[in-house]
Design a protein that fits this description.
Largest sheet: 3 strands, antiparallel
Number of strands: 7
Mean pLDDT: 82
Number of helices: 8
Distance between the termini: 18 Å
Helix content: 25-40%
Strand content: 5-15%
Number of domains: 1
Low-confidence stretches: 1-11
Order of helices and strands: HHEHEEEEHEEHHHH
Shape: globular
Radius of gyration: 17 Å
Strand order of the largest sheet: 1-3-2
């Protein structure tokens, strides 16, 4: 397991100032939800020495939750045996992201997934940075009266970095379908999976 590998260089955990308020809350962005991975996100985690199975899982999504999804977001889903999956970070036995450490934050540091870097923000169809609809219940930043600008500072990002990360997520959804399918098949233990 990568966490026990003494050859791996230690890197600092990440907890943004705004995210400190969520410490100890079970239902948060790092718990009880899927953390989608781009191929670049996954490669950054694998470069730390984790195996695919330690880093990721096949997160199942249901059609009823995708009714209002943008076409490019749906393109990031892979249909296998009539079910929809996306590469996501692996969850631990408490249904939290496997990279979340109590009292320390995300042990991936700067290698954490892009969706984590922009959460709870999104870029709408007009190119405006907005709070992602429906995230008020599990994100104190989204549920507060903080302005978008203040909220972005609270997650230690900038408007330019939010847009950059968002565009990378969008490109990944549109461009990496075949590779995602291979990895999801492998994670699901399907015979047609191609060795990574």
């Amino acid at each position: 397991m990568a966490a026990d590998n003494p050859c791996l260089k230690e890197h600092g955990p990440f907890i943004a100032s705004g995210c400190l308020q969520c410490a100890g809350i079970r239902e948060s962005c790092c718990a009880e939800s899927y953390v989608p991975l781009t191929m670049a996100d996954l490669n950054a985690i694998l470069d730390l020495g984790y195996t695919l199975e330690e880093a990721a899982e096949a997160g199942e999504y249901y059609e009823e939750y995708l009714e209002d999804a943008e076409p490019w977001w749906r393109a990031g889903m892979t249909e296998i045996d009539g079910r929809l999956f996306r590469l996501t970070t692996r969850k631990n036995e408490r249904s939290q992201c496997a990279f979340l450490r109590e009292g320390r934050g995300c042990v991936l540091g700067e290698r954490r997934p892009r969706v984590c870097k922009i959460y709870p923000f999104w870029v709408d169809g007009q190119g405006e940075i907005v709070v992602e609809p429906g995230e008020e219940e599990c994100c104190l930043i989204a549920g507060s009266a903080a302005s978008v600008e203040r909220g972005i500072r609270m997650i230690d990002e900038s408007p330019a970095s939010i847009v950059e990360h968002f565009m990378a997520i969008k490109r990944d959804c549109e461009e990496n379908g075949e590779r995602r399918r291979e990895l999801l098949l492998r994670l699901l233990g399907k015979k047609e999976a191609i060795t990574a």
